[in-house]
TrEMBL record:
It is found in: Cell membrane. The keyword Ribosomal protein does not apply. Residues 8-244 form the ABC transporter domain. It comes from Streptomyces similanensis. PROSITE patterns: ABC_TRANSPORTER_2 (PS50893). It is a peripheral membrane protein. Belongs to the ABC transporter superfamily. GO terms for molecular function: ATP binding. Keywords: Antibiotic resistance, ATP-binding, Nucleotide-binding, Transport. Coiled coil: none annotated. This is Daunorubicin resistance protein DrrA family ABC transporter ATP-binding protein. Transmembrane segments: none annotated.
Length: 315
């Protein structure tokens, strides 16, 4: 799978590190990634999976040992300037911002680096501070900002030059629920505008809500890649479906324990949650075994978090 009209593409990315004793550790081993225009791809993985090293190679902050990265058709190593102009990235944390400058001064500084000048730069910086809800703190030193405020300023910085490709490393980390929801809405809108967005996150809800596809990394390699829905359905054979039933009676009938394929049962008053091997069969059995006694019945595959934890636990 290759790109013909922009976006982000990584081909056979490898990164090795040599220790003081001469031993070589391969942190990233043959990673291939494609993010098309108008698509958001989330990369998930446990600590040490190679996510951060991969992101640094995608942004040009780290040279690959082998392989190549194309940003809007420009090689990140051989056409560094053109690739940088097509890509915005937010790596979060304290790096990449100047604590002794105000929020506005930070954006003005980085805007100059991207070739923005005068009224165009002032207008763009003002728009972005409004968009990330920092307009009222534009004159405050960044060193006084909370982690969440810095995260928002990082995103504003990434968007300054209106890049077609965005690489966002845990953009909602440190945000309160309201700010995190606003961040997700903004990222969704940017995707809808046709940008190619690569997102790393530990928030499974965020990944499922925003992603066109999800990539699970483990041991420096891509373990599996698919939509969140397909990952959940494919894991149902191992992890089971969840069947939620609410009865019209005061308590759950005793016979619920006889549900075929039941792996786990949790009861709470008139409600019961069943983990079963076959969701459809369990629903049919419940309706037949307790006619007229059910208020609601719902079946869902495992959550994305369960799929992730199952992948991490597998050898």
């Amino acid at each position: 799978m290759t790109l013909t009209d922009g976006g982000l593409e990584a081909r056979g990315l490898v990164r090795e590190f040599t220790a003081k004793d001469g031993s070589v550790r391969r942190a990233v081993d043959g990673v291939n990634l494609v993010v098309r225009p108008g698509e958001l791809v989330s990369v998930l993985g446990p600590n040490g999976a190679g996510k951060t090293t991969t992101v640094k190679m995608l942004t040009g902050l780290l040279l690959p040992t082998a392989g190549e990265v194309l940003i809007d058709g420009h090689d990140v190593v051989r056409s560094r300037r053109r690739a940088a102009m097509a890509c915005g990235f937010s790596l979060g944390g304290d790096t990449g911002l100047y604590p002794r400058l105000t929020a506005l001064q930070n954006l003005e500084f980085f805007g100059l680096m991207y070739g923005l000048r005068g009224s165009r730069l002032a207008r763009r910086a003002g728009e972005l501070l409004e968009e990330v809800d920092l307009a009222d703190r534009s004159g405050d030193l960044v060193g006084s900002f909370s982690r969440g405020m810095k995260q928002r300023l990082h995103l504003a910085r990434a968007l300054l030059h209106e890049p077609s490709v965005l690489i966002l490393d845990e953009p909602s980390a440190g945000l309160d629920p309201q700010s995190a929801a606003a961040m997700r809405a903004l990222v969704a809108r940017l995707t809808g505008e046709g940008r190619s967005i690569l997102l790393t996150t530990h928030d499974m809800r965020e990944a499922e809500e925003l992603s066109s596809r999800v990539v699970l990394m483990k041991g420096g390699r891509i373990h599996v890649e698919s939509t969140a829905g397909e990952l959940r359905l494919n894991a149902a054979g191992r992890l089971g479906h969840v069947v939620s039933v609410v009865f019209s009676t005061a308590e759950v009938p005793d016979g619920i324990k006889d549900c075929p394929g039941a792996m786990n049962i949790e009861q709470d008053g008139s409600a019961v949650t069943l983990r079963v091997s076959d969701g459809a069969a369990a629903v049919q059995w419940v309706l037949a075994a307790f006619p007229g006694l059910t208020t609601s019945v719902a079946v869902t595959p495992p959550t994305l978090e369960e799929v992730f934890l199952d992948m991490v636990a597998a050898s």
